[in-house]
Amino acid sequence: MRVHLGPDHDEHLAAAIVEGGGTLVPLHEAEALVWHGDVDGFPELPAGVRWVQLAFAGIEPFFRAGIIDPDRIWTNASGVYADNVAEYAVGALLVGLRQFHGSIAAAARPVQRWQKPVLDPQVRMLHGSTVAIVGCGGIGRAMIPRLRALGVDVVAVNYSGRPVEGASVTFPASRTAEVWTMADHFVVAAPATADTDRLVNAEALDAMPDTAWLVNVARGNLVDSDALVDALRGGKIAGAVLDVTDPEPLPDDHPLWTFDNVVITPHIANTRTGLNATLAPTVRENVARFIAGEQLIALVDPAAGY
Amino acid sequence: MRVHLGPDHDEHLAAAIVEGGGTLVPLHEAEALVWHGDVDGFPELPAGVRWVQLAFAGIEPFFRAGIIDPDRIWTNASGVYADNVAEYAVGALLVGLRQFHGSIAAAARPVQRWQKPVLDPQVRMLHGSTVAIVGCGGIGRAMIPRLRALGVDVVAVNYSGRPVEGASVTFPASRTAEVWTMADHFVVAAPATADTDRLVNAEALDAMPDTAWLVNVARGNLVDSDALVDALRGGKIAGAVLDVTDPEPLPDDHPLWTFDNVVITPHIANTRTGLNATLAPTVRENVARFIAGEQLIALVDPAAGY
User: Residue A299, class by beta-carbon neighbours within 10 Å (0-12 exposed, 13-18 middle, 19+ buried)?
Assistant: First the structure.
């Protein structure tokens, strides 16, 4: 099987293609393309290319650019980085609940750095709480055993409402509005689609407990930034940990930077560091499956948009 | 059974004493004392007091003050707060490895707050790493299922070397020196005794991988603060998360505050908030056991010093 690797060479992915049974070829000779770059620079595809493997889990820029056509097989990296992002999301909940952020902020001052009387009463245990995972796909499923070991009860929301293993209850996306009052804390991990744009809006934030922490590991636009600023000003929630923002990167003068109870990480839940090494086993497996005529891992549904 | 509750009333503990079968009485009439205060103000004990329940897990100030005598039964709160502290320690590892601290520090600046190029390469996954729990008692045992669910391999050190369930290997305290080279990250959770004073010294820090994160949830003096400052200056370890310090509280001008890769929380892993509510079930159980003549939970060994 003839595979092109672009936009440039990568030792992990090249080895994976060969190990899966493929041969590295120039694009015009290729039956498949493994593309570990952004949407910028994505090439015009020769007719011979029947399958494209992308290196991202969230591929909406490729949809917006009209690149993903229904005539080819497309696979993404959905689930590949799930452990990595799930681990971040668990850490994010603990950062907020256990007042690590408050301690770090206090330490940045030259005086009164040891703020026990202020911080101690604000600490909350994750143990014994209920966390809703809104958009419980690969990342959410990877979170569940981690959260359960931490003594957390999980409420899942997915598109179909089909029960997610390990969750106490699973709701279909159509009933998301009910979930905001049912959990103590919320992790947003849904794909970015027209339906999930500003999923966490003013009504959602208003419905959450005022002790709730909100974590976003999906895409910035799933949380309405203006509504979040209002909710934080009004004390409607305890705080937020955001790895993705709207706009992104978040401008230096954005009001979200000014809150003590907002932690913003610069889209590093799924790090670029080691990304291709993490993706390599999936590429190897997919090349082997393609050769064997089997169904590939992480198929993109061009109709659904993810 | 006649129990005195001091230094003052507490609804959770008073209810626990009554539910366990006790009657609340003045100290001079008491057979047992439930003391939820510090060492300061600890009363002269009437001869009739045969058992004292303390509300701390680390009770070395009571030993130093000569309060703990071998003629009475003493119990502490060892293990009671284990879930709470274990949860903090897991969060502490994630704060460092996943660069939450770096993100929070960057956000504190007025410009260039979104520091993806700097922070992304510094992120490390907890998943797939080996964590040594040095002093693997109640807190360590509570950490193990949490860490395993996060994909971590655990090396335990305890006094006897008797295998700890869930750890890949358990070392006796006499072989602690070997452990510093065997793990990626280290959690110090040992009791404060003469043997554990400055357990993490210059040699230990030098032996650790330079990518190691060190977490201290035990007592400040288990880590040599001067050696830690030197190790951080020399890049001998990746960073430290300290809930306890030496001295404590850490003075505002202490050099440990100046490192970007040190997170200091003001002794809030085991919060005072809700402390007595957490302790209450143990007090109820111990009162009932004392009445029944059974062995109490969390017995202090006056000879061992914890």
Answer: middle
